[in-house]
Design brief:
This protein is mostly helical. It is built from eleven helices and no strands. The longest helix has 25 residues.
Length: about 200
């Protein structure tokens, strides 16, 4: 009798494991219904590599195939000792568009490296996009990008202007008009003109 009880318990445990496995497979974030599952997990392993080149490759790749599972590891990668890894992590967080990335990316607009500031402006431009025109973009994103359009680096300035145009927030209009009057760059003026046109179209 004790042996029969033990066998029943073992069988029940196996049955539970099978059900758990099937549930995992069929979950919306599992490998059957979500094609991103396997490449995401492969790249997340490479993101922990001792090779900076491999970590950079993984950080970049996660922007294309990564889902919510990649957000926390990419945020951790923002402290990587390799600047290329950090820059690709910033870009990928923008492409994934998870709001958890907003507060951790805004400080990169003050980074000492222009390439890093440019990547942050572009990523925040992605994070400021909403699903429909009637949804308000995050206020902190708009305010941070408005502050960035006066960056000393023209590439960073242009990235912020383009981002504001894509987001389409009327809140940026006065700042963009003011920059038109003060900038000496005809290149920047063209970006501002396009951004203002996009904002007008999106709010018509």
């Amino acid at each position: 009798m004790p042996r029969e009880t033990a066998d029943t318990g073992s069988s029940l445990s196996l049955h539970q494991k099978a059900r758990k496995f099937i549930k995992w497979l069929s979950h919306r974030d599992g490998p059957v219904r979500n094609w991103r599952y396997i490449p995401t997990h492969v790249l997340l392993r490479k993101l922990r590599s001792e090779s900076a080149e491999m970590r950079a490759y993984a950080a970049e790749g996660l922007g294309g195939v990564g889902n919510a599972h990649a957000v926390a590891p990419l945020i951790d990668a923002l402290t990587d000792n390799n600047s290329t890894v950090r820059r690709f992590a910033i870009s990928s967080l923008g492409r994934i568009r998870d709001p958890r990335a907003i507060d951790v990316l805004i400080p990169f607009l003050q980074d000492e490296e222009p390439d890093m500031r440019c990547a942050a402006a572009t990523a925040l431009g992605e994070l400021g996009l909403t699903e429909d025109r009637f949804s308000a973009p995050p206020v902190q994103v708009i305010e941070a990008l408005i502050d960035t359009i006066t960056d000393s680096d023209r590439g960073v300035c242009a990235a912020a202007v383009v981002a504001l145009g894509r987001i389409g927030s009327p809140q940026a209009v006065s700042a963009l008009n003011a920059l038109t009057e003060t900038t000496e760059s005809e290149w920047i003026r063209r970006y501002i003109s396009e951004a203002l046109h996009q904002i007008e179209e999106q709010n018509a």
